[in-house]
Amino acid sequence: MKLSVPESCVILLIGVSGSGKSTFAATHFGPYETLSSDAFRGMVADDENDQSATAAAFDALRYVASKRLEQNRLTVIDATNVQPAARKAFIDLARAHDMLPVAIVLDVPEKLAIARNKGRVGRDFGAGVVRRQHDQLRRSLRGLGREGFRRVHILDSEEAIAEAEIVREPLLTDRRGEHGPFDAIGDVHGCRSELESLLTKLGYVIETDASGRPVDAVHPEGRRAIFLGDLVDRGPDSPGVLRLAMGMVRNGHALAVPGNHEEKLIRALDGKNPKTTHGLAETLAQLSDETEEFRAEVLRFCRDLVSHLVLDDGKLVVAHAGLIEKYQGRASGRVRAFALYGDTTGESDEYGLPVRLPWADDYRGDAVVLYGHTPSPEVTWVNNTACVDTGAVFGGSLSAMRYPERGVVSVPAERVWYEPVRPLAAPTQPGDERDPGVLRIDDVLGKHVIETSTHGRISVREEHAAGALEVMARWAIDPRHLLYLPPTMSPPTTSSRPGLLEHPDEAFAAFRADGVSEVVVQEKHMGSRAVVLLARDPSRFDAPAGWNGVVHTRTGRPFFEQELATRFLAELSGAAERAGLFDELESSWLLFDAELLPWSLKADDLIRDLYAATGAAATDALPRAVSVLEAAVASGVDAGELLARTRERSDNALAYRAAYRQYAAPATGLDGVQLAPFQLLASEGRNHATEPHAWHLDRIDRLVAADPVRVKRTERRFVDLADAEAVADAVAWWEQLTASGGEGVVVKPAAGLVRTARGLALPGIKVRGREYLRIIYGPDYTAPANLDRLRDRSVNHKRSMALREYALGLEALDRIARGEPLWRVHQAVFAVLAMESEPVDPRL
Amino acid sequence: MLITLSYSAPEGADHDSTAFGFLLFKHPAKLQSFDVTVGQAHVFYPEATPERTTVALMLELDPVELARSRRFTGDAFALAHYVNDRPYASSSMMAVALGKVFRTAMTGRSDSYPELAAGTIPLVVTVAAVPARGGAELVRELFEPLGWSVTADPIPLDPERADWGDSRFVDLRLEGSIRLADALNQLYVLLPVLDDAKHYWVSDDEVGKLVRAGEGWLADHPQKDLITRRYLRHEKRIVADAAARLANPDADGTVEEDENQPRAAPRLVDQRADAVMRALHDVRAHRVADLGCGEGALLARLLADSAFTEIVGTDVSSRSLTIAERRLDLRRAPDRVRERVRLLQSSVTYQDDRIAGMDAAVLMEVIEHIDLDRLPAAERAVWGLAQPEAVVVTTPNADYNALYPALPAGHLRHTDHRFEFTRDEFQGWASRVAGEYGYSVEFRTVGEVDERLGSPTQLALFLREAR
Known about the structure:
heterodimer; A: alpha/beta; six-stranded mixed sheet; B: alpha/beta; Rossmann fold; seven-stranded antiparallel sheet; 17 helices
């Protein structure tokens, strides 16, 4: 006998001790699919037959079962389950996870069970127990359906048990094998003419019957329509809409899900006399002119509709009122209620309509959800979901969402067919529609894995997320304006040249090893890393009028107070305008990675309290020490060596002071402030970060030309790594830059993004100058005894961090380009900050 | 890094100035070097003539070892440690060297010149680059009562940047007639006191050392309290967490409101907590979330009051929460206490379902730490999404700032305050939030009320309107 069960469901095996449940389970189900009470007794009490451990065993079993059900996995409960209370616990568990409960009864003769038990160690509880169980089983048999089992299979003999075969059937909602492209059409509500126009506009060819009534529509490219429910009621021709939609579904040219209006229509056609409000009266009147046959077909069509459909390998879910992630692909009364009516509170609003909760705001699922039900003037995306109901029957428009293209196609309503009870767009105060940019704490806190397109899965550890949250929440700008954080940059492996820790040769060697043939060597400015968003349209970023972008640090903190920032950004925006960048990229905004000068703008306190203070102590104390030592040597004390060392340190202190002074240029307001951009990261719909550096520098040079005062040019040399002369020239350039106190250079692959066999190549390696490093490693680091020990540093962790942060930043830009929801962008940006809380030698 | 002591024997004395070398137990013709922690101390004589004898103690620290030594950093990942004033300053490390090199002289013992060692002698002491928290003024207050004539010249931060002003270092010159052992002991105690750097922890028996070194001069010193307090402040720091590495928040710099109040008056922090507790009782709250609970001052009060059956404390800083947990002694608390309280890392600008639906939420001195343009996010998260039945908000009253003489006009009470509301601004803001999210709001004063300027802290109590 074939026993059909849903592919994912909870199966209770019911039978007395010794009825062969475990053997049955082992024959028909996978080893992990079956949860046996005996096995759990063994786990909690070291003895499968220890009845005193029953409560604990079932507790653990239910817990494991619930973990499986959360994953939508078929789960078999192997326990006697002969008492209604025992079964109810599992029926409740199934319902709590919106899975169907199924009963399989193994009803064997008492004698056989008793005989089997006798043959087994530890089952010496006598015939009485089995008899009592058998009694309970017998009494239960008839009521199993009423208890809530959606399917009951009774195997009432040894033969039946032996011949049983389990057939797993997909749920009706499971249409993952259906791939698009689709056109999902919002609430039609009897607007037959608008539906014809929309289908035509979408490219479908409408077919009519002998009386000229539309009965099918076919797309030449094989696209299929999806009706998102509420085909009927309120409008002028519900039967006409039904005829067309039913024809399309029947012929495989469309799919459909039911709406709440179909649900009510079923009851009316079934003779249940529901209230004929909300336009049902019109539908019934229109249907009364149709044939009995047609009405029967409508009833059958509506009844066969399945609450929601999971399509395209699980990447698309359609339901009339939408569906939260945990209900997708599940089956229960509440799943159906949600799919038809949405997330209702049971309360009514001032118009007497049910209050619906904005479930989409909290949606975090990977599947796109397309739905209707709630009319609004425009189709907008919220967290991967879109409501396609644009209120055709209320005089709005009839819309379709193209999938996977995500384009909206609409036709206007021919007239107001039905006066809305509630105005189509809820009245809002001007300025009130701004979303305050609230993200969920669990979007960022705890352990997360970010899937990146360039570097695979990147884990964010819980403690690092905790550290990042503090920085993000206390110091960073609004997450809606924080599109990107730059990666940290690694120095090259340590040079072995005398007197030097870093040299360009090691950077060139690293890129050669990665198979990079051309690099660009860029001057490293003496400033602070800055990300600049120039935005001409504040509404693009939910910002108030007058807002024109942000300039923030590598940890997301603003550089300037608002008024200065606005002036600074306005100047840069003007330059970008004159350079034609907005026009060329057809974007209202541009995102730059840059260096902001001078460094003292951000680090003034650090320069004074740390660098200058140390310099003050050193340049005061060392000359005094030199002079007392000179006096001692002059009077014959053998302190010549100490004197020489101290003299050298005294010189180092002066060199150190000269080094930090380079970074302490005074700047008041915007005077002396310059931006040196080196990459144009992104614009609307596009991630440019993977473009070659020549592309970036070309555009940035135009920006410099447009405002040479505010925008600073980044000097650079393109170097063919096979050309020894070019390499030597680049080294000479580095020497020249750093001898005069420059910070150094950054060596980058000229191609931008480079993939190697081992993964991504580093986006850049910084090579810092000898004098500059005094403010990193201390004034006396160049003393040979110190330098030898400082060479012992490892850049591996720093490189790994730099790569992960680079990939996360690219991922954030990709997500913005794809128009993904804010929380997805924020997760990637937040992860960069979390990486930054990993402890790593800050001198690298 | 450098101390010199000079002695000129008075005319007609039975010894000449070179006797000084015997008092110090150090040979005048030799350079002597001693190992000290992360470096060496050198003793030598720039001059040793019958007229005048000068000894120099020079500390030569190893900068690399200093930065790498866990003992001196506490946090190996702070950038500051290679660039560090310690190798140049005459700091607490100098005091340690002094104690080691001149141990015998500090006891006042002398085999060759016992009377000279026991009596006062004319001394000139110079100390290069003394880090002095409290500046030249404090230097004088510390040394003058001991009989020194003090010259303390502040060292400018950078001669090229006059606008930066002076550094915290002074060049110190002391002149006086003092027993040598006392002079050495005074330097040994007062250099770390001036330095006031608690990161340089030395040993367990600090109290004993202070008592010994202070013998004969500390007990009657007018600054005895400050000396004792600062000297004993050497504590191991809590290892900085990841956030501290990142944030470099300029944490210190509070203008403590309470310093401006008469001592007998109750402290404002207590009055504030009392006012919050009163408001919570008035609305009969049992389940309370303290948002931005910090180190748990209010949580402790809530926990002590059995009216509160469920207490949630949230803070954005996991370090604060760790301190709160320790403060509430939750690890040792019985289950029935522990079950009442939960500490969660969270931020009021993020939606957090774990705090949804409480009887009351408290934002005590929290909103002023949120940037004004991020405040709407907090409003949405608390009033719009967590929707407690009541919300208690306290925040400074900017009007009242005029009554703090230490606070310059237009300044905020704390460097981390992003704004401070006047009474009008606060009431305008609170009324708007109440209207937007369906709450009523009443206002209360906290602390002594000034007729014209109101109370130092202002409180708003929001009640969710029935729907």
